[in-house]
Amino acid sequence: MDSLYPVFLDLRGKRCLVVGGGTVASRKVETLLRCGARVAVISPALAPGLAELAGLGEIEYLQGEYDSRHLENAFLVIGAAGEETVNRRVAADCAARGIMVNIVDVPELCSFYVPSLVSRGPLSIAVSTAGQSPAFARLLREELERRYGEACGRFVAFLGELRPRVRAAVPDPHKRQALYLELAGPDFFHLFKSLPAGDLEREVDALIDRYREKE
What is the pLDDT of residues 158-215, one digit of tens each? Predict the structure, then answer.
């Protein structure tokens, strides 16, 4: 196949449908909820964790068998019914309506693949094998998890907080980009991890002043 187009979707407030109520569906629902999606689950019965979420009102539970009418207003669909005939119907119905669909463990029925993800606050590193080898994607993810710890997420959040300050202090876009690169570099990351907050703030001030003087 041609290369996949990598993208991160903003699911906040969007209706996402999960077909299936078992263990696999539970994992998919948890991920969607973490992304702020409005999750609906269609299944004759629910695993205990999903039943609890439904009882708390965290998900919409549509008890019964899947029907194409359940796709109304769905932004994204995940088929985890555990029955091939149901999953194939879900895939075909979504394709006919132009709805993004992922059928668990059946790559040829998917219009998108769920990557193996390393999440460190605002930092996300995704690994995909286009559904060909989830096991290899998992091994790569575990290696990345060891390499990029929680400090990386805090560092990215810190850099995000600095952006308005840098934009205000350094109007020239070329010099500003050079400053962004220096702030994101390994030397400054080392300072971020090793210095107390007050000392780090002074380092930031000095660095911004140096680029301001170049204006």
Answer: 999 999 999 999 999 999 999 999 999 999 999 999 999 999 999 999 999 999 876 5
User: DSSP H helical segments within the chain, as ranges?
Assistant: 23-34, 48-55, 84-97, 134-147, 150-169, 173-184, 186-194, 197-213
- Domain map (residue ranges) of the chain: 1-114, 150-213
Instruction: Name the fold adopted by 1-114.
Output: Rossmann fold (3.40.50)
Question: What is the token pair recorded at 50?
Answer: 């999903």
Alpha carbon distance 184, 202 (integer Å) = 17
Closest CA to 80 of 31, 37, 124: 31
The pTM (predicted TM-score) of the whole model is 0.80
Cα 165 to Cα 123, 161, 169, 189, 200: the distances in Å are 21, 8, 6, 18, 15
> Phi and psi at residue 170, in whole multiples of 5°?
-125, 90
Convert the pLDDT of each residue in 108-122 to its tens digit.
Answer: 999 999 888 999 999
Across 112-140, b (16+ Cβ under 10 Å) vs e yields: bbbbbbbebeeeebbbbbebeebeebeeb
